[in-house]
Recover the amino acids of this structure.
């Protein structure tokens, strides 16, 4: 809930500043029960307690990887559940959060695709993942940076109003106060929604899952390309209003023998020429039912060498592979390394 939503649940006779008081208690002080909002008149608190409850997510399971990554299965009010991943690093902590339960986009290399779409997450459920992971890992007291990537389950641009509302709640200096420079949204390329996101005052940084070097190849790997063509996607990226400090990110999943040749690398460079961008390469994280192979490290290195002659290009190290927490593995799989 934002301040307006809170105002709407208060009795009409209450002064407007009460909504702001509750808002700050929820997002800045991060209270977990209404009892802690001690600056409210008792009668109002009792009335609110009878009708509402701060909607925190319930931890159904938590899996601990040998590399420090933790995958969370978080329970929602309707009994469904969604995944979020905590990745500690030396200088910063990254939280990977979901925007939908499952995903309706049918990428051939992604386990989440096999779930289909169950439903969109609300703004509260998106923010709730950040609150839960930050609290559980003691991040609020920590000097280290919090980075948020909307790269968990779901296609964020198919749930754009809730994703943008969640971003406003996360970034509000009077609330959670996380900089929009530290939030990145990744999309499979829902073209009209890219332009719409560009119009928002408060918005995450934009990453595009490119994953192919030609129109035909992308149609095979990401059938959504039949509707939203690669050429038009690149045109939408060219028209995207970057902020002065911002670059686009292109992600590219390398599939052994499919899209990982030197020829592909040169085509990627040509596609992205004239864009203010960087490229992140991810070697396929395998999974049951995924009909592709992880390329050899030499192949990944050769691809990177070609791209980085023209563009910044990095290899993304997989995190939490042993607990099915890595990119493309979020399908609510059980794993044996449970530490609750
Ligand atoms: N739906 C959004 C965000 C979630 S997917 C999107 O597709 O962009 C996050 C990233 O994981 C995407 O870049 C996707 O291409 C990548 N990914 C999916 N399956 C993968 C796999 N098996 N191995 C490595 N990366 C994968
Ligand atoms: Fe959905 Fe992204 Fe997986 Fe494609 S890669 S199925 S868009 S979560």
């Amino acid at each position: 809930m934002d301040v307006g939503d809170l105002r709407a649940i208060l009795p009409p006779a209450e002064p407007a500043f009460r909504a702001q008081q509750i808002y700050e208690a929820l997002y800045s002080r991060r209270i977990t029960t209404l009892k802690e909002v001690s600056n409210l008149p008792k009668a109002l608190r009792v009335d609110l307690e009878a009708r509402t409850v701060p909607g925190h997510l319930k931890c159904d399971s938590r899996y601990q990887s040998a590399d420090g990554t933790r995958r969370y299965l978080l329970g929602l009010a309707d009994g469904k559940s969604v995944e979020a991943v905590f990745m500690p690093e030396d200088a910063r902590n990254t939280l990977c959060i979901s925007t939908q339960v499952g995903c309706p986009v049918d990428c051939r290399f992604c386990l989440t695709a096999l779930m289909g779409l169950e439903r969109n997450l609300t703004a509260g459920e998106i923010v709730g993942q950040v609150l839960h992971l930050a609290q559980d890992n003691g991040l609020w007291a920590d000097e280290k940076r919090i980075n948020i990537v909307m790269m968990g389950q779901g296609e964020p641009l198919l749930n754009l109003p809730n994703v943008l509302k969640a971003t406003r709640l996360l970034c509000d200096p009077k609330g959670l106060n996380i900089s929009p420079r530290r939030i990145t949204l990744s999309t499979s390329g829902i073209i009209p929604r890219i332009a719409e996101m560009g119009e928002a005052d408060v918005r995450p940084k934009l990453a595009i899952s490119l994953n192919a070097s030609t129109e035909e190849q992308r149609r095979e790997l990401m059938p959504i390309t039949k509707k939203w063509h690669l050429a038009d996607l690149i045109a939408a990226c060219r028209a995207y209003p970057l902020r002065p400090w911002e670059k686009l990110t292109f992600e590219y999943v390398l599939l052994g023998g499919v899209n990982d040749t030197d020829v592909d690398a040169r085509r990627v460079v040509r596609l992205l020429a004239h864009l203010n961008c960087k490229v992140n390469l991810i070697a396929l994280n395998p999974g049951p039912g995924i009909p592709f192979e992880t390329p050899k490290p030499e192949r990944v290195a050769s691809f990177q060498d070609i791209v980085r002659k023209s563009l910044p290009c990095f290899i993304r190290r997989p995190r939490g592979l042993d607990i099915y927490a890595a990119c493309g593995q979020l399908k609510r799989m059980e794993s044996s390394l449970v530490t609750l």
User: Anything to note?
Assistant: The chain has a mean pLDDT of 93. Residues 103, 105, 107, 110, 112-113, 155, 188, 209 surround iron/sulfur cluster (ligand 2) (CB under 6 Å). Residues 130 and 223 are 31 Å apart (CA to CA).
